[in-house]
Amino acid sequence: MVMAKKTILITGCSSAAGAGAALAREFHQRGHRVYATARGDNAKAKLRFLTDLGIGVLELDVTSPDSIAAAVGVVREATCCGGESKSDGHLDILINNASLFTLSPLSDVQLASAREVFDTNVVGVLAVTQAFLPLLMPNHYHRTPSTKNTGTPNSRGQQELYGGGLVVNIASIAAFMCPPWHGVYAASKAALVALGHTMRLEFAPLGVRVVTVVAGGVGVAEGTTTTHPETTTTQSPSRGLTAILPTDSYYQSLTRETDGNTPPLSNKQNYAPMPVDLFAKQVADDILKASTGIKAPRPLVWRGAFAWWAWVCTWFGWVGMLDGGTDPEEWVG
After folding, report:
1. What CA–CA distance (Å, rounded) separates 74 from 81?
2. Looking at the domain assignment, is residue 37 inside a domain?
3. Domain membership flag for residue 254
4. What are the residue boundaries of the Ketoreductase domain, all occurrences included (predicted)?
């Protein structure tokens, strides 16, 4: 059976080597209509590498209500011949991939930076999803909003009505592993996982499915060791993730590196990442499968290097799996 062509919007595609762009290319190659987005007035210039392939691009800052509204307007007009009502236009799949990453001990992290991370990784996802929800919902819901849900009960006796679109939130294994120096980022992704679970329950009666992708390590460029697929971070090929510590940081004297900028567990993070194109292929398969059928999709999809191990540890409740004892020297090898 040939799958119907879908309209897909992906946030956070500014990096040519990142997972957002890789997903855009993968869906485009499969014949779907893709809108890749990036923030900033020069977004279209930044995404030239995608427009050259025939992929549609939009400016979209997930922290800007005006930017979000403009993107919704473009998609609505392109899919409904310029209609004005909320029932006009449609979007089959929304992929919330845009994200910010920060690497710092909690004792040193700037609170302004922490707020910015949460504003993008959590509030931004909610804002974009709220705005595009009318385009994701089945048209008949808008025409008869007072009609009670007539979906068939699932195995838990809940009424579910599908026939609309799919929301995909890109989270991270950091939400479950909570490694040192990743506290703010991990907390934002844990919040995103919780947000996805609630979306899944609340959107089901509206005909919209929700899936959270728990991403592990994904290689984005030659010489990198591991990264989060939705972000670009400073990397060291030999040591893994790096960060710049304040000169008065408590951790300056607790690391073995002379520059004091090696995060805990850095030596243990030098595992082989999953190639970004392979990650995109696997996740695209998962997303397209989740967007069809009458059954609810799996709430969490684990992909990327280390994801399987993280899933096992989470399943068994090994909360202290990354504990290195009371001696900080244990953290760095």
Report:
1. 10
2. yes
3. yes
4. 6-223
